[in-house]
Amino acid sequence: DEGAVLQPRPAVVTVMGHVDHGKTSLLDALRQTSVAAKEAGGITQHLGAFVVDMPSGSLITFLDTPGHAAFSAMRARGAAVTDIVVLVVAADDGVMQQTLEAMSHAQAAGVPIVVAINKCDKPAADPERVKMQLGAEGLLLEDLGGDVQVVEVSAKSKVGLDKLEEALLLQAEMMDLKSRIDGPAQAYVVEARLDRGRGPLATAIVKSGTLICGQYIVAGAEWGRIRAIRDMLGMTTTSGKPAMPVEIEGLKGLPMAGDDVVVVNTEERARMLSHGRKKKLEKDRLLKASEERT
Ligand code: GTP
Ligand code: NA
Ligand code: MG
């Protein structure tokens, strides 16, 4: 992207943490604070990624992780689609196995963490204990003189959500996030599903450039021509811009979470690239199978 004009873009935030600590609930609560959600009159935003537009006018793109599969896949491919990880820890349970896994995933990827201590409404909540546990694991919390922000929240009682948004905006501001907006898009798949009528649908986040309807793309090992692009409200749009989640229709098969999306000039090029990648996947699969036998 050397020499390209860079423009500020929203932060892409991934919510991670131990099972049932409230990742999805927290996202739902944040989503309800979104201006767009209010304007849409409660229409369900159907993507696993969505944008919260705060009263201040700032945007944040959020990704949910059911387990760490998607994040690990992205990390493995060096995609680094995530700018910030929100590490959700239930105030009653405290630090658990997957809390630590999420923490090390984020640290290995060099992604800054903001801690959200959730379920603070519960009688058994002990946020101080959670902070001690995280500190003991080497996380340098601001309360203990470090620079990792910690907020106490309750997704259930909708307490502390403004503080969490503030913390994320502060973190994003420090990172000075910018992307090239012109030219061919580079994007990453966050989820994919098969729709009966519309065929394979991939939710993607554009990393740089602009994705345009009608373009030939290769997503992982799959190719297609973009037939439709939808935004997080399910509205048809003509293009996808950096940090904005979009749903792409037109692929011939289902890509995987973490797969990269590239734009190519011709159908022939798309087919060739897809074919090459499929052969490589098959070769890797056979190699792995033979290694497992020996
Ligand atoms: P997985 O995706 O399955 O790992 O779970 P999750 O982390 O997304 O948690 P989820 O949002 O599904 O919440 C798990 C349970 O905790 C649900 O029963 C929620 O109602 C409950 N819960 C979530 N947040 C809060 C909270 O702030 N307070 C209380 N009391 N309960 C909560
Ligand atoms: Na759950
Ligand atoms: Mg969940």
UniProtKB/TrEMBL annotation:
<feature type="domain" description="Tr-type G">
    <location>
        <begin position="8"/>
        <end position="178"/>
    </location>
</feature>
<protein>
    <recommendedName>
        <fullName>Translation initiation factor IF-2, mitochondrial</fullName>
    </recommendedName>
</protein>
<comment type="similarity">
    <text>Belongs to the TRAFAC class translation factor GTPase superfamily. Classic translation factor GTPase family. IF-2 subfamily.</text>
</comment>
<comment type="function">
    <text>One of the essential components for the initiation of protein synthesis. Protects formylmethionyl-tRNA from spontaneous hydrolysis and promotes its binding to the 30S ribosomal subunits. Also involved in the hydrolysis of GTP during the formation of the 70S ribosomal complex.</text>
</comment>
<feature type="compositionally biased region" description="Basic and acidic residues">
    <location>
        <begin position="284"/>
        <end position="293"/>
    </location>
</feature>
